[in-house]
Amino acid sequence: MSALDPVVLGGPPILTEAVPLARPPLVADAGLLGTFGAILAGGVLTKGEQLAALERELAEFLGVGHAVVVASCTTGLMLVLRTLGRTGEVVMPGFTFMATAHAARWSGLTPVFADIDPQTFNLAPPSAGDAIGERTAAILGVHIFGTPCDADGLAKVAAERGVPFFIDAAPAFGAEYGDGTRVGGKGVAEVFSLSPTKTFTTGEGGIIATADGDLARELRIAREYGNPGDFDSLFAGLNGRMPELSAALGRHLLPGLPALIARRQELAARYREALADVPGVGFQLVPSGAGSTYKDHCLVIDGEKFGTDRDVLAYSLRAENVPTRNYFDPPVHRQTAYRDVATGPLPHSEALAASVIAVPLYSGMPDVVVDQICAAIRRIHHRAGEVGRVVRAERPARDPRKEGDRG
Ligand SMILES: *Cc1c(COP(=O)(O)O)cnc(C)c1O
Question: Whose CA is nearest to atom 10 of ligand 1?
Fold first, then answer.
């Protein structure tokens, strides 16, 4: 045993305490607490001036005509899909978070899963084109892990086939396209999430960004039960509203966001540099000129070159106090909820789901923690054969999909 041995081979853990996989950057200064106090004292907890101001500030930040704030990204996607007023199928990637598909289902539409580009992990325009049929109502792209998808390529495919294109931008608030514009301005609408695991949070919430004023007006009615104001509902809407306290938190955090994203990008670059020469470790490709939020920073493990597989690495890193997550495994088209949707093989989605592993990244993370995590990955690689044998013997035999830190 030596200090350089991985924990699973008897060495000391590289981190003496577990670090978080993600942590929302929240600062409650006197100004914010004063605003909260004023909202409570005023008694207007919903549909007040905080929401109206947040919507204006978000539209300006994103450079879009309209930002309609809602209760969650899932709600926003459901409302956008409903206001399309179409029935049939929605083409989307199989490698995405479950809510992308759920939004289609809840809107009475059927998800049709297409494959991804193995480098960017995002919906591949040719595969989306192949999935389009007579019943296609829309194409739904996703900015996986906060890295912009090929929105122009997907929009072109959609236009050629006469179907609308919009985007689940949940993890990408603050990301930039390769053309230098902020994510939020492409497609019919882009829908962001403000839940606490994302880079910009209001506790819970969502933003629908759109240039279409008629759509924005309809969405504001839709998030209000379909009530245009005279209590004669026009259609079956939802309560999709964000409370004033959350809107105030969003306004408080928005100005600091670009610096937080820049820090995340620095940390991701540090990981990539430190692991560049480790065989069998790959990364999501961020398109040239684009900026990712790295909502998740994922490694792709080629088991043959690395010496052992993703699940053994996840188990061994946990022993080093490094939490990880096998994200998204199983991919949504392989989940129980979508067993009834006939999906042919999506080879790139399936290969990625089996080899992807998210590693800790949060804006308050010190450089040295990245260095320690990378050192742990290196020493596991150096002894990969032995590590694999020990871990397979000691790990309880269970579904490898359930390995890794979930939540
Ligand atoms: C987080 C996430 C969602 C869900 O967002 P909510 O605000 O929790 O509804 C949807 N799609 C993707 C790709 C996500 O990452």
Answer: 99
Per-residue confidence at 14, pLDDT binned at 50, 70, 90? Answer: confident
Ligand 1 pocket test, candidate residues 69, 116, 121, 195, most atoms within 8 A of CB: 195
Residue to substitute in 95, 100, 183, 197 for testing ligand 1 pocket (most ligand atoms within 8 angstroms of CB):
100
How do residues 185-212 score in pLDDT, each as one tens digit? 999 999 999 999 999 999 999 999 999 9
pTM, rounded to two decimals: 0.95
Res. 23 pLDDT band, cuts 50 70 90: confident
Q: Ligand 1, atom 14: nearest CA belongs to which residue?
A: 170
Q: What is the DSSP string of 198-236?
A: SSS-SSS-EEEEES-HHHHHHHHHHTBTT--SSS--SS-
Separation of CA 355 and ligand 1 centre (Å):
22
Residues 133, 391: contact at Cβ < 8 Å?
A: no
Please tell me the distance between residue 171's alpha carbon and the centre of ligand 1 in angstroms.
Answer: 7
Ligand 1 interacting residues, C-beta cut-off 6 A: 72-74, 96-97, 99-100, 142, 168, 170-171, 193, 195, 206
Measured in angstroms, how far is the CA atom of residue 198 from the centroid of ligand 1?
9
For the chain, give percent helix, strand, coil, nearest 5: 45, 15, 45
pLDDT tens-digit series, residues 346-375: 999 999 999 999 999 999 999 999 999 999
The token duo for 246 is: 């959350």
How far is the CA of 390 from the CAs of 178, 273, 313, 393, in angstroms? 45, 29, 12, 5
